[in-house]
Every structure is written in C-alpha cells, then in structure tokens.
Amino acid sequence: MKEKLEQIKESALEALKNAAAEKDLEALRVKYLGKKGDLTSILKQMGKLSAEERPVVGQLANKIRAEIENNIEQRAEKLREKAQELKLQNETVDVTLPGVRSKKGGLHPLNIMLDDMIDIFRSMGFDVVDGPEVETDFYNFKALNVPDDHPARDMQDTFYLGENLLLRTQTSAAQIRTMTSRKPPIRIICPGRVYRADEVDATHSPVFHQIEGLVVDKGVTLCDLKGILEQFAREIYGEGTEVKFRPSFFPFTEPSVEVDVSCPECRGKNSSCRVCKGTGWIEILGAGMVHPNVLRHCGIDPEEYTGFAFGIGLDRLTTTRYKISDIRLLFENDQRFLEQFDK
Ligand code: DAH
After folding, report:
1. Which of 259, 312, 333 is nearest to 113 (CA)?
2. Which residues contact 213 (CB under 8 A, 6 or more apart)?
3. Cβ within 8 Å of residue 120, ≥6 positions away
C-alpha cells in the first residue's frame, strides 16, 4: 500500500508539472484527491491493514495528500503569475511612441468661400434661399425675358432633360421662383450648382456654381446696387480693392453691367500676373436693374417697384482666392488637394 501511495504521489506531481491551465489543476485535484479519486480509493482499503500498520499508512496518506495539495497550490500560483505576466506584456504601452492623430474632415474650398460670402450678404440683410437644379424653360429662360427665338439663348448651351425640362443654366431662375412666391420687399441670395454643355478645360466645367442676388423694393436704384457690390468686393478682397462697372447686356436686366475688381494678386502692378493675365482686373459678376418685363412676368408692377439683381461666379472667386490654377481640381475630390484647405 505504501508503494501504491508513493506511486500516486509520483504520478500526481508529474501530471501537475505539465498542467498548463487552472482548469487542468482542478481536474487533477478531482482525479487524485476527490471523493472517487485515486488516493481516496486506496484509503478505503485501510480496513484490510493490521492495527499497527494502519496509523503508519494513514500518516503517509495524509502527508501525501498535503504534499499534492501544496503542489497544486504552488502550480496554481505559478500559472496565475504567468497569466498576469502575459497580460502585462500584451498591454504594454510604449509612451515614447508618437501619438496617432485622428483625421478630421474639413470644408471644401468652395464651401469656405461660399460661407464667407453668405456671412457678408447676411450682414447686409439678405435671406438665403434654395432653388431646384432641374428647372422648366419658364423659370430658366422665358420669365427672365429670354423667349424661344431670342439670340440670348445661344449665350448658354443647355442640357435638356425633355421638351420643357432642363438643368438650370443660371441661378437667375431662383429670381422668378422668389418673386412668384414672395411679395416685395425682397432681399435674397440663392447659391447653387448650374449646368452648361461646355467642354471641360482648366477654366470650364459643365457644372459650376453661382450665387444669385435679388433686391426688389420701392425706390431701389443702380446706386444701391453699386453700394452693395462695392461693400461685398471690399469685404472679400480687402479695403483697398477698386471696383469697376462696365456696361453689358443681359436680357433680364436693363441697364446691365459687368463688375471687375482690381486684381487681388498684383493690384495691376504685374504685367505678367497669372491671376489677371496682366490686365489688372478680374471680372467677378454680372448685374443690373431687373427688367420691367421680368417684374411683370412675376406679377410685380414695375411702376411701383424696382429692383436689382446680380449673379456671381463662385468657382472663379475660389480659384483666385486660393491661386488654384485648374478649375477641375474643385470637382475631382482628390484628398491631397482638399486637405490643404482645412481651416
Ligand atoms: N445669369 C447670368 C449668367 O449666368 C449672370 C447674371 C447677370 C445674373 C446679371 C444676374 C444679373 O442676376 O442681373 O451669366
């Protein structure tokens, strides 16, 4: 029996050495020390022993039990230490590593420019309105005093979606939508995308952006238009900016003007300036006094009310401000380009 006990001990200690996890230890405890375990089943045979042998074997069995228990405890401790070590190793933070910056999105340069422009016009009392990009011939042309056979239609190559439906070629369509849905006094801007069947190159894109402005009230004059546009130009390009009004033609305004500002890059001092091509001026918008026919189309009496309107090209203003040499960059969504404008 003593031999058997020693064997149990040897086998238990050997098995413990190889136990790799705490649950293995528990299985071994059951196997050797449990109610139906090896040691217990030996002890159950103690009755067969003589009275002298019994305490000796009993003592040995207790000693071996204690030894195995001890061993299990030690092994458990070791396994816990190991697990802790592993955990620490995996969770180690190298505080000398550089931090990882999280990328944040930024505004598109067109939106930065547009936001600035909206701020300026809001400060002058303008509302911002929206209009549809798919328009009817009436809003985009006819009500703007461009009848079917008018040569002015050739000024703009139009994408037609059907007989009467088209992609708006100008935000001016929003003038009509506004005047047919609101009563004067009107003071709005309408920014948005416009479309023309233009060949794509560094300065042309079939989709681009305009900001339409419209003021209708009693006693509005060309002087008011000049005041607003001069103020706008100076806020965008700085106090010293000169503003030039050139007579022009648009079917929906009379008189019509085109507005140039002194070149923000060279102020007219560089004959080989890339921004103004050496002219000293850049054209930023078309404008004029709303044609009486347009007011009439919208049910507004031109004897009682007058108004002015303007249309600003947003893309051109943005490329000049940021010295972007090719308009296509604004539409390609190349992150390497866009990231440079993060405010
Ligand atoms: N719609 C014109 C264009 O696309 C720009 C324009 C000129 C708008 C004069 C106006 C205006 O409101 O009064 O070329």
Report:
1. 312
2. 121, 126, 188, 189, 228, 287, 309, 310, 311, 312
3. 231, 232, 235, 236
Q: Each residue of 190-203: pLDDT tens digit?
A: 999 999 998 899 88
From 250, 257, 308, 314, mutation site for ligand 1 pocket: most ligand atoms within 8 A of C-beta = 250
Instruction: Note the helical H segments in the chain.
Output: 2-18, 22-33, 38-43, 53-91, 109-123, 137-140, 173-181, 222-237, 292-297, 314-322, 329-332, 335-338
Q: Which of 271, 37, 71, 297 is nearest to 175 (CA)?
A: 297
CA angle 183, 184, 188 (to 5 degrees): 100
Mutational test site, ligand 1, from 252, 284, 312, max ligand atoms within 8 Å of CB: 252
pLDDT at 343: 60
Ligand 1 neighbours, Cβ below 6 Å, are 170, 172, 212, 250, 253, 286-288, 309-311
Mind listing the pLDDT tens digit for each residue in 253-288? 999 999 999 998 888 899 999 888 899 999 999 999
* Residue 150 amino acid letter: H
Determine contact, residues 290/175, Cβ cutoff 8 Å: yes
Instruction: Give mean pLDDT, residues 176-181.
Output: 97
Tell me, yes or no, if the pTM score tops 0.90: no
In tens, the pLDDT along 14-45 reads: 888 888 888 888 888 888 888 888 888 888 88
Cα(228)–Cα(289) distance, integer angstroms: 13
pLDDT the model gives residue 152:
67
Instruction: Provide mean pLDDT across the span 101-130.
Output: 94
Structure tokens at 232: 């706008």
